[in-house]
Amino acid sequence: MDKPAAAPAVWQLRLPYLSLVLFLATIAALVWLTRSYDEENQRTTLISDVLWMEQNMRFHLDRNAAQLAQIGPELLAEGERQPSTDASLRQLLRAESGLARIIWLNAEGRIQGAVPPLSDAHLIGESRGSVPSDSMFRLGRAIGRPVYGPAYEVAGGDYHFEVHVPLYAEGAFTGAAVGVYSLQSLVVRELPWWFSERYRVAVEDADGREIAAKSKVGPLSSAHEYRMAFDPPGHGLSMHITAYRGETRWIPVLLIASLVLLSGIIVWSVWQLRRQLARRQAAEQALLKESAFRQAMEDSLLTGLRARDLNGRITYVNPAFCRMVGYTAAELVGRTPPMPYWDPEHAERTQELHEMIMAGGTPLEGIEVRLRRKDGQRLDALVFEAPLIDSQGAHSGWMGSVLDITEQKRAQELARQQEERLQATSRLITMGEMASTLAHELNQPLAAIASYNSGCINRLESGREIDRAELREVHARLGRQAQRAGEIIRRVHDFVRRSEPKRIPVDINAIIRDAVELIEADARKRRMRVSTELAARLPEIDADPVMIEQIIVNLVRNGMDAMRDNPPARRTVHILTRQEDDLLVVRVADLGCGIPPDTARRLFEPFFTTKQEGMGMGLNICRSIAELHRGRLGFEPNPEGGTIFILSLPVEPA
What we know:
This protein is α+β, with helices and mostly antiparallel strands. The chain has helices spanning 10-76, 83-92, 120-127, 134-143, 183-190, 193-198, 250-300, 319-325, 329-332, 347-360, 406-433, 435-461, 468-496, 508-526, 545-562, 597-601, 618-628; strands spanning 99-106, 111-115, 147-148, 152-153, 159-169, 172-182, 199-204, 210-213, 225-229, 238-243, 304-309, 314-317, 367-372, 378-389, 395-404, 504-506, 529-533, 541-543, 572-580, 583-589, 632-637, 643-650. Strands 1, 2, 3, 4, 5 and 6 form a 6-stranded antiparallel beta sheet that branches. A 5-stranded antiparallel beta sheet has the order 12-11-15-14-13, sandwiched between helices. A 5-stranded mixed beta sheet has the order 17-19-20-22-21.
C-alpha cells in the first residue's frame, strides 16, 4: 500500500508568496531606478548645456572685448574714420553681439565719440542707474585688462552693463573703448534656438530680482534648474536656468505603465490562481474521497464488473470478477478475445455472443454464457452489457455486469426436478383417486374377453360343426375388447409417467378429448356429465401434451367435486375452446357453489385446500404449468352459478 505523501514544509508553502513579494519589489525598484536614471540624465544634460552656454557667452564677451581693443586705436585716431573702421563698428553692433552702444574715451577719460551717438536724453536716462564711473576707467588703465561694470537700469525697462577695454599705442595708455551691453539683447540674441526651446534663462541681480529673461513666460514647475554667477560681468549678477517641462516621453511612461499593469495582472492572477488551487485542492480531496468510496463499493460488490474498449480489449475488472474467474486483474487487463476464461467447449458460441455484444450490447434480460475458471471448474454467468460513455459524451466501450448464476441454475434445475416429481405425484394421486373407476373400466373388457373365450372353448368341446363366420365375429369382438383395455392402460400410463418436459406442436382439442376419455369413467361413476364445445380449425401450439392434459383433468375433477351436492340435472362440466387474438382460451365451467372471496385470495397458494383429503397443490401446479408455457390460469364467476376456470395459451407465430 502506498504511503501518503508528506505534508509540505511551511517554507515551501510560503515560497510562492515570498517570490511574488520579491518580484513586486524588483519591479518597483526597476521603476524607481528608471525614473532616477531619467532624472539624473536630464540633470546631467542641463549642467552640460549650461556649461556650454557659459563657455559660449564668455567666449562671445571675450571676442567682443578683443575686437574693441582692436578698433579702439582707430577710433581715437585724428581725422576721419576709415570705412573699415565703420564696418567693424557695424559688425560689433549687430543684434547678435548684445552690444547696444560703443563709446571711446581719451587718456583723460573724456568721451571722444559714440556709436550710436549719445544724447542728453540717453545720459539722463542712464544717470538713473549706475553711470560709468572714473573708478572703472582707472581700474582698467591700472590692470591693463577689460573691466566690467555693474548692471544699471535704462529707459524702457532694459538693463545695461559696460565693459571698459584699455587702449595702448606703442606701450603708452591712450584711452579706453567702452562697450555697452543690453542684458535683454545678450540673453535673447546670444542663446541658440535649441537652448531656448529647452530652458528659460533669466538674469537676476544681487537682490534676486529678475532683470532680464529669454522669455516672459515662466516654465511650469520643474525639478530641473540651475543657478550660476554671471561672471563676467559679475557684481552679484546670476543666471537662473530652468528646464521647460518637455514633451511626454511616452516610451518610459508606457514602459512604467506596462510594468505596473503587468504587476497588477500578476498579483490578480496569483490571487485567482490561489483561489483556483484552493478550489482544486478541495475538489481533489472530494474526488479522492468519492473515488475511495466508489472503489470500496466496487471492491465490496459481489457482482463482477468488466470494462472493455471498442475493440473488445479489457480495460478494467473489479475484485469480484477476478474471484469469479480465478484470474488476477494484471492477467486480464489488456487482454483481447479469446479470453482465458472462455469455455473451450463453447468457444464458438461465446465468440458469437461477444460479436453480438460488440455490435449492440445485450438485451435487458441479459445473456447467459458458460465460462471456465482458472482451476478448470465451469460456471454459468449472466452478462449485462451497456455502452460506456466518456465525459465528452462519446461511446468509448462497453461496461459489463457479470453474475455467477451457477448455484442459481443448480437450484432452478433442482426446483424443476422437484416440480416434475410433484406433477408426477399429483398425477399418481389423481390416478389413485380414480383407481377403482379405472379398475371397473378394465374389468368390463376383460370380463367380455373371458366370456367370449369361454364361449369359444365350449363350442369347440361340443363337437358340432363350427361356423367359421361366427367364429371370426367372436374373435373380432375379442380384439376390440383387448384394444379397449390396452387403450385405457396406455392413457393411464401416459398420464402418470414421469418424463422430461417437451414442447411439440399439439392440437389443444385432441388433448381435451384424451382428457375427457381418461376421466369419463370417473364421471359416470359420480353421475356427472362432461360436455365439450370445441372450436374448429384452431392453430397448433408448442406445448407439452401431458402437462396440458394434467391441467384439464384437474380442472374437470375440481368442477365435479364442486357439484357433488348438486341435483343430477346440475352436474355438468362444460369445456369450451376459442381463439381470441393471439391466445387460445380454454374455459372449464361448473355449476357448483362458487368460490367465496376469502378462498379466492388464496386459491392458488401452495398447500391451501378446502378438501379434507386434499394436498392443496393441484391448482398451484396447474398455474405453474400455464406460466411455464407463457400462459396464465385464472377464474371468474359463472353467471349460471359456479365457477369458470380460464386457461390462456399464446399462439406461436407461423
